[in-house]
């Protein structure tokens, strides 16, 4: 097997949801069928930018089995979104990208609904379009939104370019231009990252049922309480009137946080008076969901005579697509933008992030949003500077890395910085490497690439409900879904340890949104941080209640515990012990990472083979060994795909992939050997002493691979993904320049 097996300690406990998924018993949205249910379908724009002249739906309505056909005029509500409300349920006057929603059908079957779409007659007047983010901000660029500063949640102002979604500037340490001017050496270059789909296997789907003022939703959304809030505000109803039912989520990686087609499904259910299921096909999901922002990033790095960093300036322009509403942040920015250079001592820094509207698929969040776009350019330029100055690329990083007691480049204080321990663990991994000889066939060269990264830990708000049963067991009610990260198992493991209770006596379930108060939702690698402390406090409060009110002795046995739980259940008559926790205001934690890639490159063809990834991670305490290890290992493979395989091709505004078979995801035949060292201990968050892991391991991999290619054959790849063709032509250009 190409990927290293988890150590024995990581395989002791099974996952709560494991057997349900293996047996096919887990219920996903598309597995659910409601009585009298209809099926929805969406007519999408074939143009990247066009005026809608007319829409005729009479033939579609006349088709037997069609119950409703909706256009923008039939939608009683306005635009929606997460922070900025700029997404129409159906396009009214203009379409802004290939795949924009124009009309929708509800019918007795999917086949009838799809046939009805072919009978809708739309007349378009094509308009000039813009696909590049930098071009979109030019004075003469086609305008997508006439006055986007008027949208609810907008962060732009009248006078800004109408194609501007957001602009954020972060700075610390004085004027960066002066620091660069005083630097002995200054290196400048521009790097690009592509558009990538998150790669989840379950496309977006939704079932909506509307009964007078009550709305019920089944959808693979990873933030059900935020979704409830967004939908209630959009519809102008109380949050208690919106019910989000738990369902399994078939993969997320950042892509399952947006409302997506839920508002449209609600509109179809209202129009028909019947439940409606609307499922996006893979082609629709690829063309119209919320992939990663592509970027063009210019970096300037200053160094002194000793090769120490003096200043860093980053100017990032990101393609936000046709709408900004899929981004959850209040500043309509990406959470990873501060990651530029964050693993190093940098006395003066300035980071500018600009996101532009373009006539392409709207962008949202993919695993570590903004972090890859920042890390790849900065780490590539550091590598270029090291080679130009004749300094070993590992040495220059070690010379400049954060040390314990340092603040971040942007001035944030850390509990601790375990860069030294992490680096030594990575070096130890590499020293044990068994390097095979290069293949005899071909003109191969091998290279090693290094990257350093650190990721902050984010918090949130959650509530936990503990329900003892009369049989002496415990039901744990959590408000968040398990989108694959092992969150349900987290709850079982913490309480099993705290209570000295066998895991099989603890049941963890996702609650209905009506059963608990609030949860921030999955995202930003925050669930373990937020929920672990809530679960820990809940376990302590439960023990306190059992000791004080139900006579649980101090040195209790399992029968003692079960008796006390049974007495609790009888006395409380089904009521829960509820514990809320706010982890938003937490100390700054540094999770350090050193990633090393070993690749071989064929000089004749440009073929790239990533042989090994060695990575060390500062992880503090591990609660759920299996899921923790797999999160990190899976992140490495996610980063590998971003580096050399995955590219959501967009030509003239049109996504050219129709399925995940065409959009190349890594397979077992592709992936490298992965070797990981987990540096446990140190200072984390809360009683469980944890740090984030979900997005710690994917960010550094693309830069490490690019740096290894440069080490192997001396060509610098400045765009992701890196293909054999790009390497081949770079090698030929290098030869021609001699």
UniProtKB/TrEMBL annotation:
<protein>
    <submittedName>
        <fullName>CO/xanthine dehydrogenase Mo-binding subunit</fullName>
    </submittedName>
</protein>
<dbReference type="Pfam" id="PF02738">
    <property type="entry name" value="MoCoBD_1"/>
</dbReference>
<dbReference type="InterPro" id="IPR016208">
    <property type="entry name" value="Ald_Oxase/xanthine_DH-like"/>
</dbReference>
<feature type="domain" description="Aldehyde oxidase/xanthine dehydrogenase a/b hammerhead">
    <location>
        <begin position="23"/>
        <end position="128"/>
    </location>
</feature>
<dbReference type="InterPro" id="IPR046867">
    <property type="entry name" value="AldOxase/xan_DH_MoCoBD2"/>
</dbReference>
<dbReference type="InterPro" id="IPR036856">
    <property type="entry name" value="Ald_Oxase/Xan_DH_a/b_sf"/>
</dbReference>
<dbReference type="Pfam" id="PF20256">
    <property type="entry name" value="MoCoBD_2"/>
</dbReference>
<dbReference type="InterPro" id="IPR037165">
    <property type="entry name" value="AldOxase/xan_DH_Mopterin-bd_sf"/>
</dbReference>
<dbReference type="InterPro" id="IPR008274">
    <property type="entry name" value="AldOxase/xan_DH_MoCoBD1"/>
</dbReference>
<dbReference type="InterPro" id="IPR000674">
    <property type="entry name" value="Ald_Oxase/Xan_DH_a/b"/>
</dbReference>
<dbReference type="Pfam" id="PF01315">
    <property type="entry name" value="Ald_Xan_dh_C"/>
</dbReference>
């Amino acid at each position: 097997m190409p990927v290293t097996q988890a150590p024995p300690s990581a395989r002791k406990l099974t996952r709560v949801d494991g057997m349900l998924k293996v047996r096919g018993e887990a219920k996903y949205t598309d597995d659910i069928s409601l009585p009298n249910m209809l099926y929805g379908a969406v007519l999408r724009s074939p143009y990247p930018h066009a005026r809608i002249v007319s829409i005729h739906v009479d033939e579609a309505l006349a088709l037997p089995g069609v119950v409703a056909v909706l256009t923008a005029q039939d939608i009683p509500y306005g635009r929606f979104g997460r922070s900025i409300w700029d997404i129409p349920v159906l396009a009214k006057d203009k379409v802004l990208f290939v795949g924009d929603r124009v009309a929708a059908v509800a019918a007795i079957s999917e086949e009838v609904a799809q046939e009805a779409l072919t009978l809708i007659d739309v007349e378009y007047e094509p308009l000039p379009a813009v696909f590049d983010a930098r071009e979109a901000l030019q004075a003469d660029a086609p305008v997508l939104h006439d006055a986007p500063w008027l949208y609810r949640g907008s962060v732009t102002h009248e006078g800004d370019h109408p194609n501007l979604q957001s602009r954020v500037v972060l700075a610390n340490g004085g004027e960066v231009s002066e620091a660069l001017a005083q630097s002995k050496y200054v290196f400048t270059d521009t790097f690009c990252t592509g558009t990538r789909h998150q790669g989840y296997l379950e496309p977006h789907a939704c079932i909506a049922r509307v009964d007078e003022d009550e709305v019920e939703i089944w959808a693979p959304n990873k933030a059900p309480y935020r979704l409830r809030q967004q939908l209630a505000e959009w519809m102008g109803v109380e949050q208690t009137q919106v019910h989000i039912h738990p369902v399994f989520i078939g993969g997320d990686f950042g892509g399952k946080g947006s409302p997506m087609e839920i508002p449209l499904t609600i509109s179809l259910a209202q129009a028909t008076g019947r439940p409606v299921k609307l499922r996006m096909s893979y082609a629709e999901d690829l063309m119209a969901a919320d992939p990663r922002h592509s970027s063009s990033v210019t970096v300037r790095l200053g160094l002194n005579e000793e090769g120490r960093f003096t200043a860093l300036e980053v100017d990032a322009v990101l393609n936000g697509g046709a709408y900004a509403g899929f981004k959850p942040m209040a500043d309509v920015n990406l959470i990873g933008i501060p990651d530029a250079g964050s693993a190093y001592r940098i006395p003066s820094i300035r980071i500018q992030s600009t996101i532009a509207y373009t006539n392409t698929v709207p962008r949202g969040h993919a695993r570590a949003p903004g972090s890859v776009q920042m890390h790849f350019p900065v780490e590539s330029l550091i590598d270029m500077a090291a080679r130009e100055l004749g300094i070993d690329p590992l040495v220059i990083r070690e010379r400049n890395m954060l040390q314990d007691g340092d603040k971040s480049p942007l001035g944030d204080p850390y509990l601790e910085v375990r860069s030294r321990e992490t680096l030594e663990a990575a070096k130890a991994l590499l020293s044990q490497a068994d390097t095979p000889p290069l293949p005899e066939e071909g003109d191969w060269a091998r290279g090693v690439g290094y990257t350093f990264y650190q990721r902050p830990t984010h918090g949130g708000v959650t509530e936990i409900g503990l329900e003892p049963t009369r049989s002496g067991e415990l039901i744990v009610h959590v408000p968040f879904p398990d989108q694959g990260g092992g969150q349900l198992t987290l709850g079982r493991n913490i309480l099993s340890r705290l209570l000295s209770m066998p895991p099989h006596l603890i049941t963890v379930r996702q609650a209905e949104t009506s059963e608990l108060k609030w949860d921030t939702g999955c995202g930003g690698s925050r669930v373990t941080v937020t929920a672990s402390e809530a679960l820990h406090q809940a376990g302590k409060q439960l023990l306190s209640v059992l000791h004080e009110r139900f006579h649980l002795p101090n040195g209790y046995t399992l029968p003692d515990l079960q008796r006390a739980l049974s007495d609790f259940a009888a006395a409380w008559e089904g009521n829960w012990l509820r514990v809320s926790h706010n982890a938003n205001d937490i100390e700054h934690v540094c999770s350090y990472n050193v990633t090393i890639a070993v690749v071989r490159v064929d000089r004749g063809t440009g073929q790239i083979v990533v042989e090994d990834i060695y990575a060390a991670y500062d992880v503090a305490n591990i609660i759920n060994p299996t899921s923790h290890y797999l999160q990190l290992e899976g992140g490495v493979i996610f980063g590998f795909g971003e580096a050399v395989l995955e590219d959501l091709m967009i030509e003239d505004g049109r996504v050219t992939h129709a399925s995940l078979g065409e959009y190349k995801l890594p397979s077992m035949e592709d992936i490298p050997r992965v070797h990981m060292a987990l540096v446990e201990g140190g200072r984390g968050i809360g009683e469980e002493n944890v740090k984030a892991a979900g997005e710690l391991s994917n960010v550094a991999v693309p830069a490490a691979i690019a740096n290894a290619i440069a080490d192997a054959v001396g060509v610098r790849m400045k765009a992701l993904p890196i293909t054999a063709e790009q390497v081949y032509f770079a090698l030929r250009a290098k030869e021609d320049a001699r």
